[in-house]
């Protein structure tokens, strides 16, 4: 199946883009391909679509359910009790709403951690997105719980093979304070043996660091190094409370760090040390976190928050310029997942967005990436393509009304 | 002219809203008004529209023209040279784009300061919005420039009377470092004599404070108190670098303070002391600033930045909850301008938005104001009404293509 995008803007030049199967095959002027479906690109610009590197997709069901609370109150009195009532079917509906929202705001790939693996996997499969999915692994130092979780992990790895190659399987140890040392070591070995990524929250709060110091006499990154968990397959979300030495370790082991500025600000978790990460050469990507602490999945908002947050905390408006924020939201995430997406180039995976240059938020239009980071919202995105297939055109996604109708039922339930 | 909005959601209750002329006349179930135009409110919720309390509207023409630069470089090498080439016709086109963008994102009223008064006034008049407009007053301590500016001010006050009562006239002394003491005193007297608001930037940067201290031995708010400029008619933008004593003075004089979180973060100007302002009872509203330092005019984004910025800098997620951010973006601005808008109530000015409850960003829909602050974007807004007149319906504004076509021409010019 071939698709030819005619007369689209790429880096300010009018060009044609030919997609063959799931890859960009050729990019150039006046391409002809008689057997290709033609998509009129006039008035549109092509850009890489976004890679959301830290989500709990089905938490769309908790959007605006509990806001402006202290972390402990929020989790124990609101989020966890609600979460405990959800089954795989609920997760499927929540994940479909998440996919809908991500596609509408230009995201085609996400790195998720949540319960009821198959609920999210089915949603991603149907919605045509690309995702790295992990099942939350928590054992609270309980040996029988740990066995149960290891068995589940082994089973899910096998079961995950039923899905298309748009869906990858990752291990999801929640954090160092919810998973035992033994299980973390088991996860490290299992990941190595099976070539899997590990998706984990690290150093999100000062309390986590203090507890780690009091239990092990080491800070979280030092401790994870000691038990042998660190590597370039580790995708570490938040990573706020880290010392220069720890950032050096992250760089040394090639750990993939995910910055979550909106969630970190909303929960008052702290400020991400962007400049130090950058100067050490750590690969930093962006993630929205779940909808209960954001409350949306917009990577456009996340880019703006990342850029402005860095300028504020470093007291320097030249820090984290728009093009860097755009890379964090696209190709840096692709690198972290080992995928050749996040760029518009021959041979790369055909994941992209077409933005409407006539949208008022992109006018006059001096610098498209600056506009995308600092001005745009979802209304600017006309078309979304993932793996060579159109997921949204003219702002419309097939079946969107039914997805919303299902998700609205949760208002009555909770 | 009467308009009846049937079966709309107001605070989670289905109701009818009757608009008579430019006011809400009655709100209740099953209203009948045979001579009213009927607007179907099913699936929509009615909310106050936003009041953007600090703008330089025509700077839409500079959107993404110069980003990620140090303040001095940005102003002297990019913004000011470009601004110097603009005439009234340019300001008209830039202001029309600004009005378009504001309406699309639910704003019906703004407080502006810019050059070429009539360019902006004509745009506001045509686009049907409400605005308080001031002409920038700068004399750089030059007596002849000061005379010229005073004459212009007197003339513009007279000329402003040609516009409808949706347009108010304010005085726009740029700042204490660009306007002489004599002119500031003249402005204070002229405002008092004519019952006018004064719109001014105060304590935006540390440099402004340091210079004021070295020239006058006083901080900006102390100095403005001394020369008699402070009062409840003063609308002060930014107000970042202020001491507790200065905040006490602002409260004592009833100064209207405007918080501009996006601009303050983007230019790394500093952090607004929200908690101290709140505890002293200062009326704080929100403004986007101009598009060259934001780069849009979305009050929805501004609410989210205000709430999250406050949580971050006060290290407390319960600070500035969603409902407070919503008030800052609506009724607090209305109060500052002395207008009875920013609320849906019988007798108030009929300025409102109708949001689409079926939009994915507002689903499941537990708390509409939380969703508006933390999740929504412009795609959620279906209808915008100002002064009893529909400015946007189904997301469409009359004449929008022509406005965008004109504004896109500036890309070629600069």
What is the strand and helix layout of this fold?
The structure is a homodimer of 414-residue chains.
Chain A: E1 2-10, E2 13-20, E3 23-28, E4 37-40, E5 44-48, E6 50-55, H1 71-83, H2 88-104, E7 107-114, H3 117-127, E8 130-137, H4 143-159, E9 167-173, H5 181-194, E10 198-202, H6 206-216, H7 220-226, E11 234-238, H8 244-253, E12 256-259, H9 261-266, H10 274-279, E13 284-286, H11 299-313, H12 322-329, H13 331-337, E14 352-356, H14 368-374, E15 381-386, E16 389-392, H15 400-413
Parallel strand pairs in A: 1-4, 6-7, 7-8, 8-9, 10-11, 11-12, 12-13
Antiparallel strand pairs in A: 1-2, 2-3, 5-14, 14-15, 15-16
Helix pairs in contact in A: 2-3, 2-15, 11-12, 12-14
Question: Would you kindly provide a written description of the structure presented here, covering whatever features stand out?
Answer:
- Chain A is of the alpha/beta class and 414 residues long.
- The first copy, chain A, folds into two domains: 2-48 and 345-400, Roll (Urease, subunit C, domain 1); 50-337, TIM Barrel (Alpha-Beta Barrel).
- Chain A has helices spanning 71-83, 88-104, 117-127, 143-159, 181-194, 206-216, 220-226, 244-253, 261-266, 274-279, 299-313, 322-329, 331-337, 368-374, 400-413; strands spanning 2-10, 13-20, 23-28, 37-40, 44-48, 50-55, 107-114, 130-137, 167-173, 198-202, 234-238, 256-259, 284-286, 352-356, 381-386, 389-392.
- In chain A, strand 11 (234-238), helix 8 and strand 12 (256-259) form a beta-alpha-beta unit.
- In chain A, helix 2 (88-104) packs parallel to helix 3.
- The model of chain A has no long low-confidence stretch (mean pLDDT 97).
- Chains A and B meet through helix 2, helix 9, helix 11, helix 14 and helix 15 of A and helix 2, helix 9, helix 11, helix 14 and helix 15 of B.
């Amino acid at each position: 199946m071939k698709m030819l995008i005619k007369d689209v803007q790429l880096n300010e030049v009018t060009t044609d883009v030919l997609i063959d199967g799931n890859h960009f095959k050729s990019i150039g002027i006046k391409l002809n391909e008689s057997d290709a479906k033609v998509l009129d690109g006039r008035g549109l610009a092509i850009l890489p679509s976004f890679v959301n590197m830290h989500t709990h997709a089905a938490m769309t069901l908790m959007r605006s359910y509990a806001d402006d609370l202290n972390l402990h109150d929020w989790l124990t009195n609101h989020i966890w009790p609600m979460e405990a009532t959800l089954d795989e079917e609920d997760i499927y509906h929540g994940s479909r709403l998440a996919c809908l929202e991500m596609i509408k705001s230009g995201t085609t790939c996400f790195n998720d951690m949540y319960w009821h693996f198959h609920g999210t996997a089915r949603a991603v499969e149907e919605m045509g997105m690309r995702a790295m999915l992990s099942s939350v692994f928590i054992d609270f130092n309980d040996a029988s719980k740990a066995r149960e979780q290891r068995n589940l992990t082994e089973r899910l790895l096998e079961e995950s093979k039923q899905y298309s190659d748009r869906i990858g399987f990752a291990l999801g140890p929640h954090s160092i304070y919810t998973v035992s040392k033994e299980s973390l070591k088991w996860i490290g070995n299992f990941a190595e043996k099976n070539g899997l990524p590990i998706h984990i929250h690290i150093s999100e709060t000062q309390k986590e660091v203090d507890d780690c110091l009091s239990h092990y006499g080491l800070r979280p990154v030092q401790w994870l190094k000691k038990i042998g968990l660190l590597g370039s397959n580790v995708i570490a979300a938040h990573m706020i409370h880290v010392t220069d030495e720890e950032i050096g370790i992250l760089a040394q082991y090639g750990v993939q760090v995910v910055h979550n500025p909106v969630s970190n600000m909303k929960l008052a978790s702290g400020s991400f040390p962007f400049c130090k990460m950058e100067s050490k050469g750590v690969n930093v990507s962006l993630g929205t976190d779940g909808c209960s602490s954001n409350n949306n999945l917009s990577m456009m908002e996340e880019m703006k928050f990342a850029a402005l947050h860095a300028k504020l905390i470093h007291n320097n408006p030249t820090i984290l310029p728009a093009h860097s924020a755009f890379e964090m939201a696209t190709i840096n995430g692709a690198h972290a997942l080992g995928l050749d997406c996040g760029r518009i180039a021959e041979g790369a995976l055909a994941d992209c967005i077409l933005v409407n240059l006539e949208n008022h938020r992109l006018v006059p239009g001096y610098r498209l990436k600056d506009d995308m980071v600092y001005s745009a919202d979802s209304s600017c995105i006309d078309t979304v393509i993932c793996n060579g297939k159109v997921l949204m055109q003219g702002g419309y996604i097939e079946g969107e009304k039914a997805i919303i109708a299902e998700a609205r039922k949760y208002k009555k339930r909770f």
